[in-house]
Structures are given as structure tokens and as C-alpha cells.
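Predict the structure of Restriction endonuclease.
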Amino acid sequence: MSVQGFYKGIKRSRYYDADEVAQWFQQVSRKRVEEIGAAMEAYISTNLPTVIRRKSKLGDYRTSPYVLMATAGALRLSDLRDLSKFLVDIKLYMGLETSFGKSIEKIVMGHYPIGVPETDRWQSPIEKDEEFARLAGLSAEEKSGRRVDSVWREIDSSCIDGDRRHLMTIKSGTSTINDTQVGGMHTAIRDNHMKWLASSQERFGVKGIDIVIGLTYGTDRATNNKENQILAKLLSSGFHEVDRESQPGIIANPDGTVRVYRAIGIDYWAYTANPEDPSVSQFAFLEVLLGLATALRLAHEKEDIGTALNERLDLLSDAFRSLRFPQGNALPQWISQDMGITELTWLAAAVSSFFDEK
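Done. Here is the predicted structure for Restriction endonuclease.
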């Protein structure tokens, strides 16, 4: 089959259907939601205040001075505490986008697939852990050099379901994969898939493996298409489409022992919950969201998160006050005349991006 039309064939729209979502809610397991919520609450209560308090000086909140001034102007953030809150919020979001995503991998996925023994649930591949253990004692530079030869680096999680082993590389969202990662992931799958298959058959007695590029939120049409580029490149490396009509987006090696595809958003969590038949577990993303809502309610009852945020707001506000430009003749007269205290406050905050703290 020609590669032409491959992208179009695997992109489909997913529109909100209230009746469908209502049916999914009826399938949610309260027990799993409570278990996920308890596990995530333990992580959030311990780690979120630590992440917030880790930023203890003005330099920790440094961002683009140009974007800072433009945003402060657009939002009219004239009060120092409002400006501080904006920076604390955005840095918290940026910091959590990666670290919190990693926690989901470790905490939430360990509750799936549904109905398999705990030892077969999603976890870091044992082969990857063994590779990492062999680097113990090496310097950062030596580890970096050795990682070039890693066979399992691109695989984040694995599980056994039925007669196949499932290997997943996990990306947080729809625009996470860039061109460099496309090349790296294509090369890793092309060069290592038979090694992954051999190890899986030897250790776990499976018949084959599924290699899945997972995006934890979004839809097929909302991505930057990089995950599809990886599949398209593999079609020129010995893989073929299984069936564009009945199994769009699934490609395989010549004998079908290795399959590669991607799972996005609702389909990602459905696949996580039931790799053999994701169609029966479309509700799984709701369990994750309900578990997170439960965890946040429990965590905020402890108040330490709010206390930590208020501490950072006070710290940053005080730091900005110390940066305010002096009055009098310190500034050229035309600057003092043309700009008010609000604009000078934004300017002082932006100037801080160009200096180290004492």
C-alpha cells in the first residue's frame, strides 16, 4: 500500500457527546478512583509544597523580559503582588508540566491494566532499570556518553496483557515531540525493535510486542503530527500498514510480531487500561481526572500548599520592591515624565532578568 494518504487516514475528529460521556461515567470504578486519589494525594502533599518552596530567590522566577513586560501590560498587572502572583503561577505551571507528568506515569499507570496481576501492570522495563544500574558510580559526563548506546532509553513503561508485551514511550501532550525527537524515536524503534522483541520473548514468553507512542491528552487532530511522522518514517524501514481501513495507524514488521502505533488522549488512557481491547475502556481518562480531583481536595485540606504559595508571593513582592528604580534625578527626566509607576515597575521586573543576585 502506498504511503500517500497515511496521515489523513489515521486522523479522526473526536467531538464531545454528552450522552457518550454520561455512559462512561457509569463505567468508572469508584474503588480505582479512590486508590488513584490516595496515591496521588500522598505525592502531591509531599512534593508540591517542596516544589513551590524550592524557588527561593528572584532568579528562580526569571522569564523572558520581553514577554513579561508585554503580558504585564496586557493584563494591567500594576500591583506588585499581582505581578508576583502571575510569575509564581506561570513558573509553577511550567515546573509541574514535566514533573507532574512523570508522577502520573509512576503513580497512576501502576493501577492499570484492569484485571491483570499486579506484577504485570505498567512499570519501568526491567531491561531499562538494568541499563541504568550499570551506570552507577560513573560521572555525569561518563553517563552521558554511555547513554548513546542505550537500547531501552526511549521506552518509558511496559506491561504484559495477553500474549503480547506492551512497550510505551510517553509524551505529555500534543506538541511535546519535536523534529529532533522524531529522528531519535524513529532510529530507536528501527534499530532496537528486534532486540526488544527477543528480550520480551525470552523473559516473559510472549508471542510479540506492541510499541506505542502515547500522548496523555489531546486528540488526533490537535497534535503537531510528529508522532505520525515517526510511523511514516518506519514505513520506509521495513514496516507496513496492517490495514488502513480496519486498523488505521497500526504498522507492523513483516511477520507481525512487532506492531507500532500511537494512542492519544482518551485513546491513550483506554489503551493503558486495556491494551488488548481499548474500545471497552474509553472511560479510563475519567478515572484519572476524578482521582486527581480527589487528591487535590484531600491535599488542600492540609493547607500546606496554600501556605507555601503565599510565602513565595511575599518573597517575590519584597524582591520587586527592592528593584524599584530610585526617585529624583536617578532617571532621565523624559523617562520619569513619560512613564508612570506601573510601567516602571514592569521595567524593573524585566531588568532583573539580565542580572545575577548577590
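Residues 208 and 257 are 4 Å apart (CA to CA).
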